[in-house]
Design goal:
The complex is a heterodimer of chains A (145) and B (353). Chain A is mainly alpha-helical. Helices cover 84% and strands 0% of the residues of chain A. In chain B, strands 7-8-9-3-10-11 form a six-stranded mixed sheet, sandwiched between helices. Classes of the chains: A mainly alpha (145), B alpha+beta (353).
Amino acid sequence: MVMDWPWIWTSIQVALAATVVAFPLAFAAGWRIAFDTRHGRWASIAVHCIRLAPALVLLAAWRFGASGWMLAAGVLMGTAWLARETSVRLAALPAPWFESLATIGAPGYRAAWPAVRRGLVGAAAWVAGRIFLEALIGLWLRGRA
Amino acid sequence: MIIDVRIRSRRGSGDALDVDWRSDAKSTLLAGRAGAGKTLLLRSLCGLTRPDEGRIAIAERVVFDGPAGVNWEPARRGCAFIPAEPCLAPHLSVRQNLMLASQEKGRIERGRRVEGMLEEANLRDVADAGAGELSAGLQLRAAVARALLAGPKLVLIDEPIRGLDAALIDELRGAIDAAVNGHGVRVVVCARGPEAGLDLAQELVLLEGGRIVRQGPGQEWLDDPGNDAVVRWLDRHAILDAEIIAIDPARRSSRLLCQPGTEQEFEAAAAYFPGLLKGARIRVAVRRDRVQTAGRGLGLVCSLEEAREGPVSVRLRFTNGLAAEITRREWEPFRHNKVWNVEIPPEAVRLLR
């Protein structure tokens, strides 16, 4: 048998859980990258480093086979991928929306969220699919070895 | 509430802004042509742009001090900024945009305050409309209402990017009135030209090349522009070189030889300029709409160089540098005249420093 149902089920669970945890983290990081010139630079560097790293979920699945490690790797990768997507979409929104709100101490994300929601949900689905496939391939490689 | 600003911002090799401004007026019109530094000054006040050096104090609290390393973030300064570009989120309704600014705890209390502001700003009819669907005037009104909900000390309004038309000027007047008289909030408004009215705000500050060239009550500026920069900005006067050829301090009058040393020189009566003696070379501004013209009769004979017809009035420019502004009704009978008779009332002639 090429694929085991427990592998598929574990990969689905890891993908969904990692994406759910990564989503708000990514929004917060993307917000900083898009609007916070002081701390955003560090967040941007961290996101780039993680994105350029080899497939972490695949490595975790192949090396440890435990869902905890796969989940941690999935959160890391999901946050990095989604944070970049979020920062790009937020930066494309008109700056006056946020500048005006910043001066009155109002939370800008409440204005931004409806404008980026649809695109980010699509990106999250893509991220979940990618984590699922990497986890599955890692578990399969581990099983073959 | 006192605003005390002494800041400098550089751009390239020159100064983009070098301002020393202290004011306790309730409302200020910050005027100047594009690139004069108006927006940069507003952004520096509210903390969106960091000046290179200097100090900003708002209501006796230092919010920026370059040498001391003080730079309060925008939310702490109490300066609500309304930028030139539309600042309401267009995908949210007017009510939702206002809800963003309400700081109260609890949804019910926030909703109550927002409804009160919608009522006060006369926005109830458009409360559920998308902010992007509103006219520029209503967007400005909603933006000011949102700013006032946050309870700022100062509201800064940049001139809408498409400029000011009559409807927007009315909205601006309403916004200033609502903020100053309704909420006791100080307002600073930016405008490029004088079309918003010199009486729009209690104080008028003119910026040119990043520096303040005049500050004070705007109503006086038309009668006494004071310097070349104000004349250029108002675009309502002719500037002439002149020499004082007679003075009469007792009658508080003097006589000028305008455009001396040229073929076009002519004499004109003027007020007495204290401190200036006979023979002094000066520059004067002559208010165009005070210059009286006639197709024929007595007065100074002037050759017409250019006539620029507007919808209501016609601007005449003469070869000797004089200019006049007459109504279309006055213009029609003499529209083919090349030579005009001009009278310059002494009160139309003002000294430039």
